[in-house]
Specification:
- This protein is 81% helix and 0% strand.
- The chain has 203 residues and is mostly helical.
- It has a single domain, classed as LemA-like domain (de novo design (two linked rop proteins), Up-down Bundle), CATH 1.20.1440.
Length: 203
């Protein structure tokens, strides 16, 4: 009789242990995702300030500036990891175009406000890359646990779903990628130099 009582008790204890491990793994993954969310929010918050600084030196580059703001809006509107990864990649592409454009404006490149924002964005990129790896590692661990026997049974009873991964290499629409060659940069620089002269002639 004692052995028959021990079997269900052992099963109950094993179930409790498995349940606690699943819960801990799930909470670690949620915490890791919160880290990504924080870095993305910080990055999105810096974009308007960056656009305003660039606008002060290159107001006529309206199309590029508006494209950056549009990409930022898409990023802040998404919530799921794959969609966020794609929106983040699109914003990176637009920011890359913006920084390429800045090469045509020496005064802007040397501006303290611009240099500080550029440094902060670069630092956030590194933190985001680390947060992405940390989240994906925890998501993989959790997803493996809920698919492995016998915990798969408990996961189904509890209604646990796998986490989606946040991929760094999500595809970006071709429309999102803009390359500025050397000739284009020179043309922009010449346009920026001649703009004040045209204004003086009108006066």
């Amino acid at each position: 009789m004692v052995w028959w009582l021990a079997v269900p008790l052992l099963l109950l204890a094993a179930t409790v242990v498995a349940h606690n491990r699943l819960v801990r793994s799930r909470e670690r993954t949620r915490e890791a995702w919160a880290g990504i969310d924080v870095q993305l929010s910080r990055r999105a918050d810096l974009v308007p300030a960056l656009v305003e600084v660039v606008r002060g030196y290159a107001a006529h580059e309206r199309e590029t500036l508006e494209a950056v703001i549009k990409a930022r809006s898409k990023l802040t509107a998404e919530t799921r990891p794959p969609a966020l990864a794609g929106a983040n990649a699109a914003l990176s592409s637009r920011l890359g175009s913006l920084f390429g454009l800045v090469e045509a404006y020496p005064e802007l490149r040397a501006a303290d406000g611009f240099l500080q924002l550029q440094t902060e964005l670069s630092d956030l990129e590194e933190k985001l890359a680390y947060s992405r790896q940390f989240y994906n590692r925890n998501a993989l661990d959790f997803n493996t646990r809920i698919r492995r026997f016998p915990t798969v049974i408990l996961a189904r009873v509890l209604g646990l779903e796998p986490f989606e991964f946040f991929k760094a290499d999500e595809a970006v629409d071709p429309d999102e990628a803009v390359d500025l060659d050397e000739a284009d940069l020179k043309a922009r620089a010449q346009s920026a130099t001649s703009a004040p002269q045209r204004e003086e002639q009108r006066e």
